[in-house]
Each structure stands twice: as structure tokens, then as C-alpha cells.
Amino acid sequence: MVTVWHYYTENDSIKNETLPMKIDPPLGYEQITPLLKNHRVLLPRAEETPAIFHRLHAMPLSLSEFEPACRDYPIAFVTSDGGKTFNAVVVLGMQVKQNLFILTDGMWDRRSYLPAYVRRYPFCMSRVTVDGKPQNERIVCVEEGALHDSGKPPYDADGQALPQWTVLEKLIFDYEQDLVRCESLCQLIAELGLLEPFTMKAEVDGFTMQLDGMHRVTRTTLEALPADPLCRLMAAGAMEKIYSHLLSLDNFRRLLNRRSFFAIKPPNKQGDFN
Predict the structure, then answer these.
(1) Is the peptide bond before 122 cis (omega within 30 degrees of 0)?
(2) Structure confidence by residue, pLDDT tens digits, 227-260
(3) What's the predicted TM-score (pTM) here?
(4) Is the torsion defined by CA of 260, 261, 266, 267 positive or negative?
(5) Separation in Å, CA 135 to CA 15, 108, 125, 131
(6) Which residue stretches of 192-237 are H helix?
(7) Is residue 274 assigned to a domain?
(8) Is residue 27 part of a domain?
(9) What is the domain extent for residue 140?
(10) How does DSSP classify residue 36?
(11) Is residue 161 in some structural domain?
(12) What does the angle CA 23 – CA 29 – CA 32 come to, to the nearest 5 degrees?
């Protein structure tokens, strides 16, 4: 369950205001700030994909996105704390800082599923650290670069949410709740010892493309699970997510095909990659 600190206006105070508060930006975001009711926000145009996503080779995936995402992207599990916790991500390229779903016009490939991580931008929710202590609460934030006098306000003069913000707010909250559910699923999968590390490596015209730090479900371990842990997975609704993940791994071949399609000439150095 996600606990959210309420929005506040320019003259309102925030909980624990006397203590130093730290808000870390999510992957790809530059500098975020808590959303104020009097903010005006520049929203991305429908025909553009924000530049921050052009160089992301992976991005977080929420639980309900496994099925639509597995048709287009490899789904892998990653950890940033030595295996204590895991998260699910969609893989977007065969090399660090390579997003093969950004086309030559700067748009995300319209034939592919657009992750909610992109659709919620420039908003996000962030965990909060107060006086050096992580809090359970999260706060709605916005990319500072999207704040501008010519932007659109989320609230009217009376502090009531405008229709466009109501839609975005639901997406932000639903996505965050779904990320929490995904974290719980990843924890269960890891707890049952189903994950193994793997590396994707390909040679293209003498150039090596390689991605490390990923984990996948081991089929043999899954098939050998005793009845009780298997029942735990089924009760948690994990089996369909696991099979979506396993089916998605074949999309690494499609990533390589995309690289070949977009590369007009064979790359001969690291900087030649998208």
C-alpha cells in the first residue's frame, strides 16, 4: 500500500518541515520537486517523446504491464542492493544508454506498447528521506525543467483539480500502487530461489554489444518446485507474470534485429551506437 503526503500550496507547510528532507529522482529524471497547487507544468506534446527517455536502455515495469510489454520487450529482473530486493524492467537496447524504440523522428515506436513510466512524465512519485531516515510515505513530484509560466496548472484558482490533472493523477497513483505490487512479486520469486543472473552478448561486424546485471527465472528450478511454494506462486497470481517474462526473453533477438535495421552502417566505436 502506498501512503502519499498531501499536496500543499506555496504557503502550506509539509509534514516534518523542520527536518531536512531528501527526495531522490527516479531513473532518467534530472531534478524533481514536490508538486505545488500553484505550479504550471509544460506537458509533452502528443507527437514527441521526452528526451530523457532517448538514452534509457531499461526502465521499471509495473505488475499489470507484464502481459502487454512481453509482446515487444524483453522483461528482466534487476537488483541494486546485492540481491536483497529485485525489480522488474523492460529492456530497450542491447547496450547501455541505447533505446532502440526511439525512431529517427524522435518518437517512440508507435507499433510498440508505451510503458506507463513514459506516459506519467513529467510527474512521478518519490520516496522521501527525512533527517537521514527513509519514510514509508511517498510524495507526488514534477520535473523541475517542466515548470514554466506558460505551462498548464493542475488546479484552478479555488484549489480544485482540473480534468486533465485528474486523469494524470489517476495514472500516477495507479502506476505507483502497481509498482509496489510488482516489488512484492519480485520478492516472492527471489525468496523461492527462482532467479539466476544472465548476460546478453552479441557480435556485430566485430563489435561487441553486451548487457550485464540482469536476472531471469530458471525454468528447471520452477519446474522442480514442491507443491507448497508452487501454491504460493499461484495464490499470488505470479504464474502468468513468470510465463510472460519467460516468453519475453525471445525479444532479445528482436532487439538485435532492430539494431541491424536502424544501423545504416556498421558501428566501429562505442559512440556510434544509438
Answers:
(1) yes
(2) 999 999 999 999 999 999 999 999 999 998 887 7
(3) 0.86
(4) negative
(5) 11, 35, 13, 10
(6) 219-223, 227-235
(7) no
(8) yes
(9) 3-261
(10) B
(11) yes
(12) 40
